Amino acid sequence: MTATDAPPPPVREGGGLRQLVGYTLVGGSGVLLDLVAFLLLFNGLGLHEQLANGVSTTLGITNNFVLNALFTFGKRDRLLVRFLRFYAVGLVGIALTFGLLWLAAGRFGVDPNLVKAGSLPLVLAVQFVLNRKWSFN
């Protein structure tokens, strides 16, 4: 058997640490996109805070799905199913932020910009667990 006849080395799935780092970097890009879009929509265009949150979060979710599918988890199969699951997890994040905006901004008068920024770490943590176990299993 020659070197050209040898089977290729097995493809290794990314380790947990590599996935965590990749997910964190992708999540950071999504958070940045989400926050910048929210600030532009809410402060620049004057959209209602909840509408701005829904649009900005959807942009972040879509960004994160594409990058996680391609780079973090390397999953290119069942993309529609994976996207629907990923988006469902994203809706959990929207609902969580919606509730926090309703409570903190609506009831206690906290600046919606601060509430949105403060909600992001909690939302990311919840979504990481759900996406790893469900969307990209």
Q: Can you describe this structure?
A:
- With 137 residues, the protein is mostly helical.
- It is built from four helices and no strands.
- It is elongated, with a radius of gyration of 18 Å.
- The model is unreliable at 6-12 (pLDDT under 50).
Number of strands: 0
Distance between the termini: 37 Å
Structural class category: mainly alpha
H/I helix tally:
4
Order of helices and strands: HHHH
Radius of gyration: 18 Å
Helix content: over 70%
Share of β-strand residues: under 5%
Low-confidence stretches: 6-12
Mean pLDDT across residues: 86
Apparent shape: elongated
Task: Let me know the largest β-sheet.
Answer: none
Secondary-structure map:
Layout: H1 16-44, H2 49-72, H3 79-107, H4 112-135
In short, what is this structure?
This protein is mainly alpha-helical. The protein has helices at residues 16-44, 49-72, 79-107, 112-135.
Q: Which features characterize this protein?
A:
137 residues, mainly alpha
